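Example 3.2
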Amino acid sequence: MGAFLAHPAVQGGLAPFIVGIVVAGLAYGLRLAGIAAAAGFFAAVYLIGNFFFDLHTSMHKIVALGMLATAIGVVADLAFKPTRAAGAVLGGLFGLGSLWAFWTVLGNKPLAQALVYGAAVAAFVAWTVATTLTLHDDPVRAGAAGLGLGLGVGIGAVLGASSLIGQYGMSLGAASGGFLVLVMTLGKRVTAGASLTLTVSALTGMLGAAAVMLARVPWFSVAALGLVPLAVRLPLPERAHPATQVVVASLYALAIAGASLALAWVARRA
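Structure, written as tokens:
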């Protein structure tokens, strides 16, 4: 059993997917099904063995900021409905948080380069959070965005030879897939909320930045993933079964993720 749980595909894919399904079902009655994405991610962190509070590395800081995003998301879902301004405010908050996460990495670069990288990282995280959070009241589109962002970042990082970032990213995509299983059955009765959208967007934004700075994934490949929250807004068949809507929205998201990976592959081969 130990060898099975130690397999990277189980840690970053199968386990988060199963946890996502189970937690989404258990939290459905509390209107917190969206916490499935966080549960899957932190299950992966635990199985990989990085679940301890050591804030000396960028990856541990990202995990800590992921906890903060989940806590804020849960409070928002229980206490109030996020407004349009919330996306900009939380985007700015986690954009600044990403600078803290990569402070050591940025500090080792020449000043001009550090300023460019820092501004790009903060802007990407802020954009991803702001655009994804607006999907909080649409479980089909929110779950599809989590699927596309997570798999795009995760597989892209693997192409850049970073298994840790890859597992973290793919765990978010897999857990979002688990959430979508419930949506395919119950439709819009399932709530995504800020629990899902804030957690997924903050973490994938920072993991995407980590893929660029630590795994040397091309910046333009990761930047392309910023189109995922926009792609899932494309029209869906309104009167179709929720399962059909999930498939269509997921195809939108995965098309952008696939284009991002194609860019990374071409750059790697060049």
